[in-house]
Amino acid sequence: MTISKGDRLPEAVFGVMTAEGPTQMKTSDVFAGKTVALFAVPGAFTPTCSAKHLPGFVEKAAELKAKGVDQIACVSVNDVFVMDAWGKDQGVGEDVVMLADGNGDFAKATGLTMDGSGFGMGVRSQRFSMLVKDGVVDLLNTEAPGDFRTSSAEHMLEQL
Q1: Residues annotated as part of the active site
Q2: Secondary structure letter of residue 126 according to DSSP
Q3: What is the pLDDT of residues 53-72, one digit of tens each?
Q4: How does pLDDT run across 66-97, given as a tens digit for each residue?
Q5: Which terminal Cβ of the chain has fewer Cβ within 10 Å, N or C?
Q6: Is 73 helix (H, G, I), strand (E, B) or coil?
Q7: Does the CA dihedral 155-80-95-27 come out positive or negative?
């Protein structure tokens, strides 16, 4: 079953890089008591994700926060080291929390997966964005395969 507006996010564990090294955060650690703009990409360092999706949220971070977003988070089915390297490469700084869904557990639990086997990527998260308020989905924007429109930071700003 695919997650919908009004649903509570499933409990999952993400890898997150800290100054002390890799650590884990549960869904509740990331979303409880906060308004979070979450977006998912099929893969770190992939063309659309690196040229448009992540940079858009970095560029629009201040505008999103001015509209009530407490935190911006990017999730991908990559390991914590790849997500950390991609965040550094993209200069996310403190603007975006990079969440590693290494085994795709969160993607599977939300029902928002895609099969990238044809590209040697296996099961990945499909491209989406959502606004999550205290762990509950308030907005959900999923993309058709190969598209990039409704999951952009610009589109989310229009919705807020």
Answers
A1: 49
A2: P
A3: 999 999 999 999 999 999 99
A4: 999 999 999 999 999 999 999 999 999 999 99
A5: N
A6: strand
A7: positive
